[in-house]
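Notebook entry, structure prediction.
Reason for the run: the old model in the group folder had no record of what sequence produced it. Starting over properly, with the input documented here first.
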Amino acid sequence: MTTSRSRWGLLSFAAAFVSILAAGRPAPAQAPAEKTAGEARKNVTVLKEMPTSQIGPVMAYMSASLGTNCEFCHVRNGQQFEYDKDDKEKKKTARKMIQMVVDINKTSFEGKNEVTCYSCHQGHEKPVSEAPIGVARGPEPRPAPGQAAEAPPVPAKLIEKYVDAIGGKAAVDAVKSRTLKGSVVMGEGRNPAPTIEVYQQGPDKMLSVMSGGPQGGMTQGVNGTTGWMKDNRGLRDLAGDELAQQARVASVFGAVQVKEPYTRFRYAGKDKINDRDVYVLRLPAVAGKSERLYLDAENGLVLRRVLLTATSIGQLPEQFDFEDYRDVNGVKVPFTIRSSNLNARATMTRKFTEIQHNTPVDDKLVKPSAE
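New structure, fully documented this time:
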């Protein structure tokens, strides 16, 4: 049985990554309940049972699927949107289409999100209903005569290669806490760029402090089953999906959290990230969450992690890209972490200039006052 101390060494490590735990997933802690969209928002109909924290990402998903913006469906009065108004026919049509997608998946695909807005629209307001004419098909890939087809890699071997690539199990186990300092480029490169400091201890305790930038300062923290955010609008607690999302962000400041038995990973083929060949591993969905890992085919390092959250209209992706690996006390960690989702303005590139392991951080992991 893995002890709690060595389990932390495996589950964390510094700057945004995945450590390995061959034992099963720890029992999930009970987080505070979150209001549904129907409880927290006015005039929500077909999405009323959705957690309120998913409404924004789901709207971004529909915008990306249709290649439109918020004003396509919603009433805008000057600089303010009046989301509860039903003045536009397109909003009424959108509700019918959402219900249609839900019904198709329920009746034809056992509730799985096989059909989504993007299935038909693919970035266009009007869905494509005709197949293209005269499109040449490429030859079917086949091995050369006398050459056997390449055997797919074994997921457990890829994970083991990753552990060796970052320094080995013993070096990872020795990491108990970390401090990261650097700057953040937000969205489309708006200036001034905020500075960032991250303090982390254990797999579930993290405080991130951003200072400066167009929105002023912001503090975000997570401590087991509780979380909070403080910005220019004040201090508020996090709950439900919002707390879970903050915990996922905390996980990428440690090692890329591989918290599963090796046997749960499935090989999902090869891909490319920039000019690097990568192997793709996937984890089946648990409680509506699934993920994919992209490992460099040559050196074994994790270059990308994609987290997927199932909703009633499709899967919401969160993508984390890891670059500029450097050695810190015998453990290789990425000094550049890029996070992105369907909202291009929410893209964040964290560039760390200083990462330290096993620094005292207890006094930092404290919820700030409301003042």
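Summary: Residues 1-29 have pLDDT under 50 and may be disordered.
The old model has been moved to the deprecated folder.
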